[in-house]
Amino acid sequence: MLVNQFLILGAVLFCIGVYGVIARRNAVMVLMSIELILNSVNLNLLAFALRNGSVDGHVFALYIITVAAAEVGVGLALVLLVYRNRKSIGLEELSEMKG
Amino acid sequence: MFAASEAAAETAAVALKSGWFLENAWIIPIIPAVAFALIIFFGKKLPMKGSELGVLSMLASLVFAAGAGFQWIDRVNGASEEQFIDPVIKTWTWWQSGGFDLTIGQHIDGLSLTVLVVVAFISSLVQIYSLEYLRGDRRYTHFFASLTLFSAGMMNMVIADNMIQLILGWEIMGLCSFMLIGHWWEDGANSRAALKAFFTTRTGDIGLLVGTSILFFSANSWTQEHLGVSGFSIRGLSAWALTGNPGSVAITAGAFALFAACIGKSGQFPLHTWLPDAMAGPTPVSSLLHSSTMVVAGVFLVARLFPVFYEGMNIYGSSMNFITLIGGITIVIAALLAFVQNDIKKVLAYSTVSQLGYMMMGLGAGAWLPAVFHIFTHAFFKACLFLAAGSVSHSGSHHSFDMKKDMGGLRKYMPITFVTWVISTLALCGVFPLSGFFSKDEIIDNVGHAGYDVFMIVGLVGAFMTAAYMTRATYLTFFGEPRGAAAGEHHEEDSHGAHDSHDDHGAHDDHGAHASHGPHESNAFITVPLIILATLAIGAGFLNATPFGEKWENMKKWVEPRPVVVADMDHGSVGEMRGLRTADTMPATTDTVVATEDTIVVMEEGVSGEAKTAPLMAAAAPAESASGEEGHGEEGHGSHSSECGKKTPDAGVCYAPYVKHAPFKWSKAALSMLIVFAGIILSWLVSVQLYTRKAGFFFGLTKRNKLLAAGHAFLVNKYYLDHLYEKIIVRGIAHPIAKGAYWINQNVLDGVVNGAGIGTKGIARWVYRNVDQRVVDGAVNGSGAVARGAGGALRPVQSGKVNQYGALLFAAAAVAGLVLIIINT
């Protein structure tokens, strides 16, 4: 069934996103990976909405898109400030801990 | 798919021809869209840095568009005179939601093909021109990517089958115009201009969304029931608007909201202020944006949804409506502003605004075809003018656009640029055998004919002013004594930033190579597009040369939708009763073609429109004498018997309202020619006094006469509209909010904070003495030892590295997921 394909695509996107979050050093890339994860969730919601023939999933997806946009706005602002202070957006350089 | 659904064959209607290019016109915007992606990803690695992909995609689009155009002409020629030429519509489901299907697809008819061909043609030439003009630019690849995407957006908008797809293209263009205007964003003025263009058009775009929503919710149930398409569909909306069903409030509100978007996009008063500032972009961008794409989008929308505006704005209903009013105001104010500009591109920008005013006024007065034809002709000569201006600055005036400072006398050095400029200027002024005459004069003529007398006079005044300011610009640029850079002088480097009219080539390292010597002619990359465009500026008008009789009115035949009543699905039974066979089946799936049920209900001869709609006609054009009607009766394609747009059709639907056509009279043409030549000669004489002899009555007139000085200052400051928007509206809204927030911050928040601070201090003192010193310290010291041990153990986990945290998080989630699965199975 079609839903399967949606779910598989969602899973693939999710994995790519998780990989990005873990492996990327660049904060912007991490943010983008988080977007991927969110969108894979969106896909799942839409797939199930399609299967159940209800609009709820679509509404949720729209909400997620909105919240994700806000989140990226805040995230990029943070990255910008970090960059101004440190001239770098490498995540591993952000740590001030000694351990 | 083929329109020859056999059903229609035996009726009065001839089966419509179609062809591969027509059926697959949706490919046209796909080509540049794909090219855009390729340029962005691989452009920098290619030998010509991606520009070859842009040029090739444009040429391919042009071939496809031209093919579709020829097949459309074939389709029209093969049809009978009275037949409605069905647009070639093809749709796919784009997305579904809650049982609602939104489609994406193509709606190809004469109008969309006209604009498609123009867009593809101008884009190709502009890209070729840019090869030379932006050679060595810092963001060369990105420039071509944006330019290509821009054309893709416009083409997508033009072929759009529904409003959502149209908005998609519309917004792509908005985005790309922002990128292109701000191409040299290192200069603050450029990025400000880009932002201004973006935000100003966004202001209008609110109307686009609102209007689309209003129309959708009003029309959807009707269109679903009768045509099987959604309320976003352009075909559905057109038919719905002409049924007489729509509540007048809904359609009026929808039309006004949509027109707000057109005001923003097409630079109509009062949102025209972004357009001259948009000259901050590279000249090829100005040429593309202001001839055939961006600014034409608004005019195109009005032409596309003409039935909606026809009903909503009550065109023909009175001697004035909102569209003509805005158009008329725009013509005059923009033309006046063009007189006080020193920047050659800004003169052209205001001229564009003014010409867009003509198009809008024409549409508002029901002169649909002349307005669309003006889009067509204007694209060629305005693109030519912009490219010529670019050529002047590129090779003649050391990248300056200041006519007073750096130009003059260039006709000797740049003969090709000069000749093409003059041809295009004459075409723009509307001098007889050139293309502008056939479109602009038709607009003015038809506006008068439809009963909008005041606006006809406005149009004539506009024609006078057009001739005058273009003569002034021509004189300043090409005649008189060379000044500044045109005389071979060099700019001091520090003066570069001083005037904003400077095409600052970011990484232009080869200044010395081609600009160190005096003015010279540009090379073939620039002159060949100029020559092609100038040729079209001469010849394009003959596609619809009204003065030579009906045989020459090809555009009218090919492009103008015929106001014929067409049977819709719901009225199929009516058709059968009349002995007509209707289409056998409704389209079963969404990806089949919808608009092929071209069964035509030929209206009975007895239904003569004049008799039934006499009151309406009388109100619209009281002066229209019966003889005038007779005079051009034969050219109306039987539209006199059409009831479309006048009353609700008894059966079937209309897709286009009936429009009037003014009979051509040589006397009227002679009058407007006289006005144009008066403008040219007068302006020439004044220019000589002002700029060469520097003496005489007109020289220093604004300094001697206070009233004129005030008027001049008023114009130089662009009617203070920018001040109004920036200083009063923006600040008026932003300032009180900021002030209020500051007050709350100082008094409320600080008070709370300070109070809390004092209270806390007291409590803290007490706690310190009693609790902290005695109870806590003991516990702390004990727990400290424990914590240190635990901390040492956990330290590696809390490394502060986000990636590591993320990995732990996902690992934990994965483990939890596994546990869940195991438990559940």
Task: Describe it.
The complex is a heterodimer of chains A (99) and B (825). The longest helix of chain A has 31 residues, at 56-86. Chain A starts with a helix and ends in a 13-residue tail after the last helix. With 99 residues, chain A is an all-alpha fold. Chain A has a domain at 26-89. Chain A has three helices and no strands. Chain A has helices at residues 2-23, 27-52, 56-86. The relative contact order of chain A is 0.14. Chain B has a domain at 721-780 and 801-824. Chain B has 825 residues and is mainly α. A two-stranded antiparallel ribbon of chain B has the order 1-2. Chain B is globular and about 110 Å long. Chain A binds chain B through residues 18, 21-25, 30, 50, 53-55, 58, 91-92, 94-97, 99, and chain B through 96-99, 795-796, 798-803, 806-807, 810.
Give a topology summary.
The complex is a heterodimer of chains A (99) and B (825).
Chain A: H1 2-23, H2 27-52, H3 56-86
Chain B: H1 6-9, H2 20-23, H3 27-42, H4 51-78, E1 88-97, E2 100-108, H5 110-133, H6 140-159, H7 163-181, H8 188-226, H9 234-241, H10 248-265, H11 274-277, H12 283-291, H13 294-304, H14 306-312, H15 322-338, H16 344-364, H17 368-396, H18 403-406, H19 415-429, H20 435-449, H21 453-478, H22 511-515, H23 524-539, H24 554-559, H25 572-577, H26 609-612, H27 614-620, H28 626-631, H29 666-693, H30 701-704, H31 706-716, H32 721-794, H33 802-824
Helix pairs in contact in B: 3-4, 3-6, 4-5, 4-6, 5-6, 5-12, 5-17, 5-23, 6-7, 7-8, 8-9, 8-10, 9-14, 10-13, 10-14, 12-17, 13-14, 13-16, 13-17, 15-16, 15-21, 16-17, 16-20, 16-21, 17-19, 17-20, 17-23, 19-21, 19-23, 20-21, 21-29
